[in-house]
Automatic annotation (TrEMBL):
SUPFAM superfamilies: NAD(P)-binding Rossmann-fold domains
Entry keyword set: Membrane, Oxidoreductase, Transmembrane, Transmembrane helix
Similarity comment: family membership: Belongs to the short-chain dehydrogenases/reductases (SDR) family.
Descriptive protein name: Short-subunit dehydrogenase
An MF annotation (GO) of this entry: oxidoreductase activity
Length: 241
């Protein structure tokens, strides 16, 4: 198993959910831009589950050494890489903020996903699970730079799923709504629409085992986004969303 963004609370909760449900992995490869922090999780997996893992440094904002990834054998890839960045009021005209949001959530991520997708295609097996966002379903004034990057990622995953279907590779797009993580710390989140990492992991694991193509972490988000997508533009542009 490969984990991209292995310091994400959701990624770690998903790994634990898999192991608790009896999934077997010869090695879990923890790809991280902060290997020192990842060491604690690797130790936890060894102590609690007797699970072997290997930490591989990978920073999307720096040049990637693909040679370090060539000999990895895996059946499942879980990607929780993401960067929320500044909201529109603070960051719209901050070019560095915009570039980092687009790079981490899409531009620099897609080549890495392509690299692993090619290996899956060659092996004609495997599942790729990637966290996108409900923010990608319609541009809202509060976070449309982030939303646009996630929209691009969602479209990429849709096309990749279509391309890999007859190659026996499953691509699952996960669309979390609000999640109680470090990335959203300090934000005023509605408890009814917010999932803990553990709750998110349970939903993602169920979608994975049921071979879903697209899954919302909390079912209520399917209803919320159906409403948001269908608000007429002449009304939507007047809303403070």
């Amino acid at each position: 198993m490969i984990v991209l963004g292995s310091n994400s609370e959701v990624a770690q909760a998903f790994v634990e959910e898999c192991l608790a449900k009896g999934e077997k992995f010869q090695t879990i490869y923890l790809l991280s831009s902060n290997p020192e922090t990842t060491e604690k999780f690797a130790g936890h997996l060894q102590v609690k589950f007797l699970q072997n893992s290997e930490i591989i440094p990978l920073d999307l904002l720096n040049e990637i050494d693909y040679k370090t990834l060539e000999n990895i054998n895996f059946d499942v890839l879980f990607c929780a890489t993401g960067y929320l960045g500044l909201g529109t009021e603070e960051g719209l005209y901050d070019d560095e903020n915009t570039k980092q949001i687009i790079d981490v959530n899409y531009a620099k991520l897609v080549p890495v996903l392509n690299f692993f997708a090619k290996k899956m295609e060659s092996n004609r097996t495997g599942t790729m699970i990637v966290l996108s966002s409900v923010a990608g379903e319609r541009g809202r004034q509060s976070n449309f730079i982030y939303g646009s990057a996630k929209a691009a990622l969602t479209a990429y995953l849709s096309g990749l799923r279509n391309y890999l279907f007859d190659k026996k590779v499953h691509v699952l797009t996960v669309k979390p709504g609000f999640m109680d993580t470090k990335m959203t710390e300090g934000l005023p989140l509605n408890p009814a629409l917010t999932a803990s990492p553990k709750k998110a992991a349970e939903g993602i694991y169920k979608a994975f085992k049921n071979k879903k193509d697209v899954a919302y972490v909390l079912p209520i988000w399917a209803i919320v986004m159906l409403i948001i997508r269908n608000i007429p533009e002449f009304i939507f542009k007047k809303l403070k969303l």
